[in-house]
Write a structure and sequence with these properties.
mainly alpha, two-stranded antiparallel sheet, 14 helices
Length: about 325
């Protein structure tokens, strides 16, 4: 006795098969997907592939010379001043990310928790906290550079007006203050993003969980730490990965605040600024090769750590289930 396996077509409500209807949808899906795919290819895929190609060649201005192999990558870590600037910029990126995570994520979670329990002015406050997120970082940077001006800036003027003139500082001119100030401004601008994500996650937690914790005698803090916070792990993972990607690609805000050299004395220099200077302010004739090699290294670093972090948080999420 032989049996043959033939594809089974499931009849749809109108008498046609599901498979046949699925085949008819493909042209329609392509119509909607192709414009986005074309834009993604032109502005994302092509520059990435081009940077990878350029990084393996020597350049004289805009003229491509012979194949250089890994020489451009070696120059990043052995040729002065790049060898010094790369590690300094990377260290600043790490500090920038850690500081932003501590301020932005903690502040976003605190605001989301407070607004979740609030009934008055909730929508207004959510809108107010999200508004800076809608402003271009270039615009935000220039506005803050004016407000932090030591002569006529609003920040020092306000401190002097309330009798705290001794706290007035050259906020952008002190090498010890410039990077922390940039971190605070960055966290201020983006705090609305984690706040909205945490607010959505808090709204999705069943109230029965909190009631059960109260019945067991748990305090409000214990209920939050043992019940609420673990359920926020998926959102925390998303916020961490996206904040990492954004902070290691940071350029516009620092450029608007401190210029292309990360003033004062390179104390706010980051990888994005270093890439900009290497590509457009580099006296070396091989600027394209060196900047492309730096861009490839940045991509590998950001993509690799993001993939590892994403996998880590997925495992944590799986344990909760």
């Amino acid at each position: 006795m032989t049996s043959t396996t033939e594809p089974v077509e499931v009849a749809g409500p109108g008498g046609g098969s599901t498979r046949r209807r699925g085949r008819r949808r493909w042209p329609l899906l392509l119509v909607f997907l192709l414009p986005a795919l074309a834009l993604y290819t032109v502005f994302i895929v092509y520059p990435l592939v081009s940077a990878l190609q350029y990084s393996f060649f020597d350049w004289t201005g805009t003229r491509q010379d012979g194949f250089a192999g890994l020489a451009n990558f070696r120059d990043l870590f052995t040729k002065y001043p790049l060898s010094e600037q790369v590690w300094r910029a990377l260290a600043h990126n790490c500090v920038f990310f850690i500081g932003t995570m501590l301020i932005q994520t903690t502040g976003g979670l605190l605001l989301a928790t407070l607004l979740h329990r609030s009934r008055r002015g909730k929508r207004f406050l959510q809108t107010a906290y999200v508004l800076p997120h809608l402003v271009s970082p270039i615009v935000a940077g220039y506005l803050w550079s004016l407000m932090l001006n030591p002569q006529f800036g609003a920040v020092n003027a306000a401190l002097r007006g309330i009798g705290l003139g001794s706290l007035a500082q050259p906020w952008r001119g002190d090498p010890h203050l410039a990077l922390p100030v940039a971190i605070v401004i960055n966290a201020w601008q983006w705090v609305g993003f984690p706040m909205l994500l945490f607010a959505a996650a808090l709204a999705g937690i069943p109230e029965e969980y909190h009631e059960a914790a109260r019945v067991d005698g748990a305090s409000a803090w214990k209920s939050f730490w043992r019940v609420t916070f673990p359920l926020l792990t998926p959102v925390l993972g998303i916020v961490t990965v996206l904040t990492f990607i954004g902070n290691f690609n940071i350029l516009d805000l620092i450029y608007a605040l401190q210029g292309s050299k990360g003033n004062p004395a390179y104390s706010t220099d980051v990888l994005g600024l270093l890439f900009y200077r290497t590509a457009f302010e580099n006296p070396d004739a091989n600027a394209i090769g060196q900047s492309s090699a730096l861009a490839v290294c940045m991509f590998i670093l950001i993509f690799g750590i993001s993939a590892v972090a994403n996998r880590f948080f997925r495992r944590m999420e799986a344990r909760l289930k």
